[in-house]
Design brief:
The complex is a heterodimer of chains A (200) and B (207). Chain A folds into 2 domains: 21-108, Rna Polymerase Sigma Factor, Chain: A, CATH 1.10.1740; 133-194, Winged helix-like DNA-binding domain superfamily/Winged helix DNA-binding domain (Arc Repressor Mutant, subunit A), CATH 1.10.10.10. In chain A, 68% of the residues lie in helices and 0% in strands. Chain A has helices at residues 4-10, 24-32, 36-58, 61-77, 88-107, 115-123, 134-145, 149-160, 165-172, 176-193. The termini of chain A are far apart. In chain B, strands 1-2 form a two-stranded antiparallel sheet. Chain B has 207 residues and is mainly α. In chain B, helix 4 crosses helix 5, helix 5 packs across helix 7 and helix 6 packs antiparallel against helix 7 (172-192). The chains are: A mainly alpha (200), B mainly alpha (207). Chains A and B meet through helix 2, helix 3, helix 4, helix 5 and helix 6 of A and helix 1, helix 2, helix 6 and helix 7 of B.
């Protein structure tokens, strides 16, 4: 006979005995019904990933945080339009990308990145036992932050967050061919700036 | 998405460097308060969920009472809209349909497997479901598929919450979520049948 803990381990909706965890689908359904606490749970689950996307795309922490906030406000207002054909996280990421693009359109693309932002971005994910140390991760972040906007957006979404060319093209409103060209350009520039020419 | 890597970073140093980056970056402050303020400033206030129940027994009784009222009102609305004979015919027709071409799985509504919802509620739900099946059959395939998918999503959600509630029978949030989901299901069924269903603002259980 399975123990309670073992049964919970087999149940995808359980994480620990004290705090039941529901899937995104259940939380979205509840939030659609006006349950703000369910929507807050969705915020807690997804805000860090969205912050990562926004920060790497727009390069400024204050702007990225504004975009994260607007992403969730817009998501709440449009929950009824979410049909569940994609994952909720994907739907949120699309809104976030749109927020960053809207900000860039309204405020130009002169956003300056600071060394502090780059280091904070890198440090926030360290400790995972990877083969790269903090200094190397900071170097990668700095190299990405220095890419031209188009190449940076594509590279972040495709190479860092794993979206396909088609998905990235759709998110950014560009042709798939343009997406591939920007990725190639971004990777080439990164190799040069990281001293990796001739590798890969 | 995607959103996940289909291929590993491999041996390319650039790919390995990119794979070493943290995907998640915590905001420097909790943004929830601002988000909530923005939402509340632009949307109608949502009925606040009650705080932790002072007495679980009292909550059960109150919840059961409210559910009976809601079920009665729902039944009343349905029977007002169409004659009883029509409902009976629709029910029989739907039962035959469900036996043969069950396109949407109708499951018994329950609270965490511990107790069933009232018989009156179930009858109203069955009647609405029969009318739903009848109406939806007349819709274009795309609209029909969308409605059936939405209904299936709601029933899957209810099933998931119910299973979770079986493990945490005293969890007030889960009870609220389950009632809210059942209410949404009734609202969807009723919307297709052009019948309005009153909104429940309190958590309800009939145990």
């Amino acid at each position: 006979m399975l123990s309670g803990a073992a049964k919970r381990a087999d149940n995808p909706v359980m994480m620990n005995a004290d705090r039941p965890t529901l899937s995104d689908t259940a939380l979205v359904e509840a939030a659609r019904g006006g349950d703000m606490r369910s929507f807050e749970r969705l915020y807690r689950l997804h805000s860090s990933r969205i912050m990562g996307i926004c920060l790497r795309m727009c390069r400024r922490r204050d702007v990225a945080e504004d975009c994260v906030q607007q992403t969730f406000v817009r998501a709440w207002r449009n929950l009824g339009a979410f049909e569940g054909r994609s994952a909720f996280s994907t739907w949120l990421h699309r809104i976030a990308v749109n927020e960053v693009l809207t900000y860039a359109r309204n405020h130009g693309t002169r956003t300056e990145t600071s060394d502090e932002d780059v280091e904070e971005t890198a440090e926030s994910g360290l400790g995972g036992g990877g083969e790269f140390d903090a200094g190397e991760v900071v170097d990668v972040e700095r190299a990405i932050a220095g890419l031209p906007e188009g190449a940076r957006h594509v590279l972040v979404l495709q190479a860092v967050y794993g979206y396909s060319h088609e998905e990235v093209a759709d998110m950014l409103g560009i042709a798939v061919g343009t997406c591939k060209a920007q990725l190639h350009r971004g990777r080439k520039l990164l190799r040069e700036r990281m001293g990796l020419e001739g590798s890969g | 998405m995607s959103g996940n890597f289909t291929n590993g970073p491999g041996h390319d140093p650039l790919d390995r460097a990119l794979a070493s980056l943290p995907r998640d970056v915590a905001p420097s402050r909790d943004l929830w308060a601002g988000i909530r303020a923005d939402i509340e400033a632009t949307t109608p206030a949502v009925a606040p969920a009650p705080a932790a129940a002072p007495s679980h027994r009292w909550m059960r009784l109150a919840a059961g009472f409210l559910l009976v009222i809601a079920s009665s009102v729902t039944t009343y609305v349905v029977t007002q809209r169409s004659a009883e004979e029509k409902i009976q015919l629709a029910r029989e027709s739907a039962q035959k349909q469900l036996l043969t071409t069950s396109t949407v799985d109708v499951k018994q509504a329950s609270f965490g497997g511990q107790a069933l919802l009232g018989a009156e509620y179930m009858r109203a739900r069955e009647a609405l479901d029969a009318e739903f099946q009848r109406q939806v059959a007349t819709l274009p395939p795309v609209a029909r598929a969308k409605l059936e998918r939405n209904l299936a999503d709601l029933r899957r959600t209810a099933s998931e919450i119910s299973a979770t509630l079986a493990e945490y029978p005293n969890h007030p949030l889960l009870q609220e979520l389950l009632l809210s989901t059942y209410q949404n299901e009734l609202a969807l069924l009723a919307s297709v049948s052009h019948v309005s269903v009153p909104t429940l603002n309190q958590p309800e259980t009939r145990l």
